[in-house]
Amino acid sequence: MENAEGGNLKVAIPSLLWENKRRIAGEIAHGLTYIHSQGIIHCDIKSLNVLLTKKLEVKICDFGCAMTTTDKKNNKPCYGTFEWRAPELLQDATAYSSKSDVYALGIVMWEMASGVVPSNRSQVLEQKLENVPEDYLVAMQNCWNLDPVCRPETQDLSFMKYERGLDEEHERLWWAIRNGDMSRKASTITVAQSTSTDMKVDFDVQKKTVNYALVDLNDPVTLKNTSTVESLLESANKGSDRSKAALAFSFYESGRYSEALHFAQQVRHIPVACYVMGEMHRHGHGIDRNEGGARRLHDDAAKGGFSKSQVLMGDGCARAGHLSNAVSWYRKAALKGDLEGQYSLGVMIYYGCGVPFDHKEGERWIRKAADQGHKDAEAGMGVVCIHLKDYSEAMQWCLKAGNPISHYHIGVLYYNGWGGVEPNYAAAKEWFQKAADQRCGLAAFALAKMYREGEVGEKDMNMAMQQYRYGH
Questions:
Q1: Measured between alpha carbons, how far is 187 from 350 in angstroms, rounded to an integer?
Q2: Diameter of the chain by CA atoms?
Q3: E-assigned strands of 276-403?
Q4: Are 25 and 105 spatial neighbours (Cβ–Cβ below 8 Å)?
Q5: 128 CA to centre of own chain
């Protein structure tokens, strides 16, 4: 996990601008949405447990008090920190739920608005706050509702995450290089590292022939057979722009950058050539890195209809907070059959990012990509099926995906006895460990809890703390 050079939120509050406070509140809500979707309740949300990076991005930490749905079934008590503890927990320490985390988030929002830690609920209700944005104030007060049922869902508070200030860097607003370390937009849900093997080239004439050639040329085994390359080279030497663009794409995908650049520069009016040059500028492949130049080239390629650039433009818009624009780009790519575009569009619709949430439509797009072998989408279907309590299908998708976040979810299924399996802590630990070894923070937290509770042998606080540190 990225280092939290910005320290904890409590220390940072005095220096924060309102635009940062809003975004931080939204990012906490966004993180809690994901945590809750995994059957985990944090139980100790407070400013000291919110870490910040240098860019003031949020990292929720200290899962030492965290509880699971199984804990709740077994009536295990939860003891968080008094000032942030929901009223229902003062009467019954087993009454925790996702809504008790929402209450604590409301108190954190009050901390950011007032600059102090509340000593009691009366102070929160009675102290007059000045210059607080109206929507922030309403959201904050809704979180304090005495009736947990009347508190908002965390996903309903995530809107604040995308409120950007006018002093945001111009380049960030228009382009953000994709972050390849996410276990998709997991997360998160926004943008995942591309695992698509779709090699379509989006120009009109001789499309099938060119696509077939490109797919073959991207296969290292096929590259040993030079007949296809020679055929395209012969066509290119006769002045065929389409063949030159196809060669540029093929050579780039196979790592032959000087040859890719040679052909791409000759046909910059063709979208796929713009994509190739954009990627070369973005990564510094055979050419100097130039993010501004990369953005412009991908913008040209995307507007020209090239699906891979459309996905990249969608990623940039999503990371800059322009969610409706991101959805528009993803939809264009998805309709062209791009698997990454289909998966990203599905995630945005499923979680209501940039569009009203629609679980059925979101699932349809995620499933469409998963059925064609997109690994992130396969993992996404595992999560969707867990939400639907179709645990048998969830297990099938997670086993098929075979990536770290899916290994974590398999551990969750074994831990809770879902998916046609009996609760099996030993099997759960094995899957959590497999995911944690591949840098899945949630799996490390799950392992820490198992060591802390003695669910796989004797209680071992040293191992628990080691896993907590690893997860952070």
A1: 12
A2: 83
A3: none
A4: yes
A5: 37
Integer Rg of the chain from CA: 25
- Tell me which residue has tokens 């995620």: 366
| Structure-token match 């020679």, residue found | 230
SS3 63: coil
Kindly state the DSSP code that residue 57 receives in the 8-state scheme. -
Tokens of 62: 């200290």
Q: Residue 20: is it exposed, middle or buried by C-beta count within 10 angstroms (0-12/13-18/19+)?
A: middle
Mean pLDDT by 10 residues, the chain (472 residues): 74 90 92 89 93 89 86 82 88 90 94 82 71 84 86 78 39 34 32 28 31 34 42 57 84 90 91 93 92 92 92 90 90 92 94 86 95 95 92 94 93 87 89 92 87 86 80 54
> Which residue reads 């320490």 in tokens?
93
Alpha carbons within 13 A on the beta-carbon side of 368:
20
Contact criterion met (CB below 8 Å) for 392 and 421: no
Q: Find where tokens 């796989």 sit.
A: 456
The conformation of residue 14, written as its DSSP 8-state character, comes to G
Nearest to 260 by CA among 277, 239, 243: 277
β-bridge mates for residue 50, sequence order: 60
Q: What is the DSSP string of 281-294?
A: HHHTSSS---HHHH
**CA 277, 280, 286, 292 torsion-angle sign:** positive
DSSP states of 118-162: -SSHHHHHHS---S--HHHHHHHHHHT-SSGGGSPPGGGTGGGGG
Rounded Cα distance, 111 and 47, in Å: 8
* SS3 call for 403: coil
Q: Which of 83, 48, 77, 76 is nearest to 62 (CA)?
A: 48
Beta strands in 53-118 (DSSP E): 58-60, 67-68
Query: In order of start, what are the domains of the chain with their CATH numbers?
Result: 7-168 (1.10.510.10), 207-364 (1.25.40.10), 403-471 (1.25.40)
Separation between Cα atoms, residue 39 and residue 319, nearest integer Å: 27
Torsion of CA 174, 179, 183, 189, to 10 degrees: -10
pTM for the full model?
0.55
Rounded to whole angstroms, the Cα distance separating 162 from 370 reads 28
What single-letter DSSP state applies at residue 51?
A: E
3-class secondary structure, 426: helix
Find out whether 333 and 317 touch, Cβ atoms under 8 Å. no
C-alpha distance from residue 164 to each of 44, 133, 185 (Å): 28, 14, 20
Q: What residues does 52 pair with on adjacent strands?
A: 7, 58
